[in-house]
Known about the structure:
263 residues; D-Maltodextrin-Binding Protein, domain 2; alpha/beta
Amino acid sequence: MKKNRLQWFLGMTLSVVLLAGCGAKDTTGSSGNGVLDKIQSEKVMNVGIEGAFPPFNYFNDKNQLEGFDVDITNEIASRMGVEANFIATPWDSILAGLLSKKYDIIISSMTITDERKEKVDFTDPYYRTGAQLFVPESSAITDPTNLKGVKIGVSIGTTFEQKAAELGAEMVTYKSDLLTFEDMKNGRVEGVITDKVVGAALMKEKGYPFKTVGDMLYSEDVGIALNKEEAAFRDEINKHLKDMMEDGTYEKISQKWFDRDIR
Length: 263
């Protein structure tokens, strides 16, 4: 009798499991394209962005996001037939937000590195730039590679931080480039390593009495980050980037922010 009851119980349990499996919802969408299906269904693409990296992405005096990255994102979203929903996130936690699926994609001037590629996927580069040393006009520093013991400001979690460490600098880390420049103006750091375009834009906008030293320390490819195993989504973004670069839209946006084509 106990044996029969056990057999009956096991049979019922197996039936329930099989029925549950048959009724499980397919979260990847009808075509199995993961997050791309979700975006197309909901008509919204959630975008992680720092919002503190002018002129690429920043909040203006009306607390509205604007910049090169913002315009590129809105153009991609328009071509996809969806709306871009920006989620401002501090740089030092922006990758974690993508990995936890707080948003679908990061469009925030992220350099493509081997270390990051171990965690996330990237689109084709959408612009190229490089790291530059900025110092006060009165500085005696003449060699950007000779920074041993020099107090250098960098944004935390960036490739600039890695380069400063490699050069033996005494690093001071900040949440944004604007803060690094403000502290250099106030004499708290002797130099700043940041993106060449960003630094030049900050000097022009704020009137900082700074100068560049030597050539760029290195050049970088910048891409759009998304989670791994999202090939259809990556290919969709790459398609629109390619079309924008071929039909003149990309150059128009670039000229608006930099007076030149930065691809």
